[in-house]
Amino acid sequence: YDGSDMWLRYPPVEDPGLRDRYRESATSIVVENAGQNPVHRHTRNLRMEPGAREKLVATSLEAARDELDRGLDGLLDRDVPVTERPGEPVPDGAVVVGTPGSSPLVRESVPAADLAGVGEEGYVVRSVTRGEGGYTVVAGNTEVGALYGTYAFLRLVQTRKPVTDLDISESPKIRNRHLNNWETVRLYAGNNADGTGGLNGENGSVFNFAATGPSAGRNLPVVLDRYIVVARALASTGINGITVNLVNADNVYLTDAYIEQEAALADALRPYGVTIALSINYTAPTDPRFAPDTLTEAQLDPYGDAFRGWWNRRARTIQQAVPDFTGFTVKANSEGQPGPQDFGYDHGDGANGIGAALEPLGMTVYWRTFVYDADVDSDRLKRAYLEFGPIDDEVQEDGSEGRVAENVFLQTKNGPLDFQAREPVHPMFGRMENTNQALELQITQEYTGQNTMLAYLGPMWQEVLRTDTYATDEDGGLLEHRRVGDIVDGTAQGHPDTAIVGVANLGNAANLTGHHFSQANLYAFGRMAWDWTQDSGRLADDWVRMTWSNEGPVADTVVRMMTGSWEALAGYQTPLGIGHQFAADVHYDPYPSQWFVRDDWSPVYYNRADSAGLGYDRSPTGSNLAAQYFPVLRERYSDIRTTPEDLLMWFHHVPWGHRMESGRTFWEELVGRYQTGVQYVTWMREAWDSLEPSIGARRFAEVREKLAAHEADARNWRDTCVDYWREFSGRPMPVDQGPASASVVVNGQEHGGFDLSEDSYTIPVPAGAS
Ligand code: BDP
């Protein structure tokens, strides 16, 4: 098995007793009126793999029915009959799926008031008892809700949980659970000039648009079978939207030839509740490809009819082909992309100009806040708030505060730099009281080991989402709900619309993500987008059971590997808050001594290594990024004694002899972090080896090979960085402190399983050094 069904493979339940019990609880599948509301129109345009056409479904209920059929047949290892009309009474053990509108049975079985509570996308999964027997109902107010419920029911069997006496009600905390697909990121390791290889796993993007050449816009639909796997995987976690092209956008995606193909893709995804959006360029209206409908640069006034009219026409054209088209993702005045500032306007003007064009069409703008420019302030990390804060504070003519329109999200990365393994949270969360804010997380492991390192990012996102911003109200009183998740889901400040965005990692590798374990990051993102309060360890456990094994000790070992893997990565990449030490052109290997073409892309700019210490002073004696946070965090980060040690060098130039909580010096602690990070990887590799008898040969070997490379590369991080820091610290290499210091703490829980005393802190000294 090659991993190509992701976590939706459905191998048989091994334990015969348990399988029999499940068989009693799932004797037949009942989906009334499944084909009533066809939702696709363009799929006839698709060129399909042989056999793919019959897998296409037209409605979400058909998708639910087919998933249940496939899932239960596999898990229960028998043919579970599917019926539209069960007859009276419903057979014992039936699984009934539907909405009150589609299914009289659902109407009868679930009181309207119970369903009302779960909203448009939620579901109820309930056991209905009747004398000795009974059946299970999976109900949503909408077909998509019922589909989500179906996946939840299947997950119970996949993870070997009971399916009797069920009474589950679920609804998403965040409305837009969205992906950004960076279909080509040519910069990074393994990316070939022809668009193959790269960040998203081997062989380019999952959607395979051709950007140039005679087949431009024409080869999208060939691999439809894979799209349906993706659609199912997304729906199974509750992801409901995807921007299909890279944020450094190519205008070709707005051309008619592409729109036709995007429509076909949207039709294939729609039954699974996934809508599409596009990344756009602010200056697309001037592109001659749209002639005769093109504007001059002088017409790019975001308040002008020409600009707004152009975007409205383009969006309307898309909407004709894709009726539920979501809107646009915009990267403007960022890393060389054009934007309103090139024409004398600010981000608020630009975002609102496009927002106004889309508003009559019911569409949304995701305007990214990833902006920085060496000219504005010496510290790149302060730039976003400096630019967007005043727009949020601005008092409008009607007396209201904040200029950004209601149908615009400001989309902000979790941290103020750029997706490092650990960053403080972005100071803008909570400070944009009058603006809809979307949180952007990077699922694809650009800076977290790409597709070589095993890094489960669930714990990082959990840390981010649970971080207390100490946000205050207008009078300076602490808000009751003020964690990042509370702000993103709208409860903190009552934002009308809510969104969370993940930069996705789907490629054309057989297993779609390159590293088998990278699938877990997509999975965890989707589940956390639905409910950010979920525990990342629990989600890992679900994924492992669905993907690898339900054998207790095997599952436990794999979960344990995963839960500490991010902290280990942070240990050898960003220990104690030293960020951006990557070789600037690949974002994989370390290169702490590098000066690159721009200061703020250079590791030395971030590490500030000298004989006094290490780290970037962002306290009041330095750039004072700390001042951008609410008072409690401002004070905490301003003082080296109160800054959390994991974030120390984000805010301070730390003296080599600084005394740490452990009693060790900063230098000793730093080396220790590198070392424990590497040791965890060694432990993971050994733990994986012990699982050989329980894992299929192909996937076992593929992961084993990745872990070997991972270990070598983690050692390289440790050795390269420590050797370099040592030149400045002038201190001797610390010696092993023994097992007591060997644990890796993840979200307050200790992980480990390795013994530090087996290895010492001794790091190879480079030739020529004394
Ligand atoms: C950085 C990537 C760059 C992206 C940028 C962004 O290196 O390719 O375009 O993020 O988010 O991490 O726009």
User: What is the percent of helical residues?
Assistant: 25-40%
Count of domain modules: 3
Query: Got a strand count?
Result: 18
Mean pLDDT: 89
CATH topology heading of the largest domain: TIM Barrel
Strand fraction equals 5-15%
Looking at the overall shape, the CATH architecture of the largest domain is: Alpha-Beta Barrel
The secondary-structure class comes to alpha/beta
Domain Glycosyl hydrolase family 67 catalytic: 157-511
Keywords: Carbohydrate metabolism, Glycosidase, Hydrolase, Polysaccharide degradation, Signal, Xylan degradation
Family: Belongs to the glycosyl hydrolase 67 family.
Domain Alpha glucuronidase N-terminal: 6-152
Distinctive features:
alpha/beta, 770 residues, Alpha-d-glucuronidase, C-terminal Domain, globular, binds beta-D-glucopyranuronic acid, TIM Barrel, eight-stranded parallel barrel, single chain
Q: If you had to describe this structure to a student in words, what would you say it looks like?
A:
By secondary structure, the protein is an alpha/beta fold. It folds into three domains: 155 residues, Chitobiase, domain 2, CATH 3.30.379; 372 residues, TIM Barrel; 152 residues, Alpha-d-glucuronidase, C-terminal Domain (Alpha-Beta Complex). Helix content is 33%, strand content 11%. The protein has an eight-stranded parallel barrel with strand order 7-8-9-10-11-12-13-14. A six-stranded mixed sheet has the order 2-1-3-5-4-6. Strand 4 and strand 5 form a beta hairpin. It starts with 15 loop residues before the first helix and ends in a 19-residue tail after the last strand. The protein binds beta-D-glucopyranuronic acid. The site of beta-D-glucopyranuronic acid (BDP) has 10 residues, from loops.
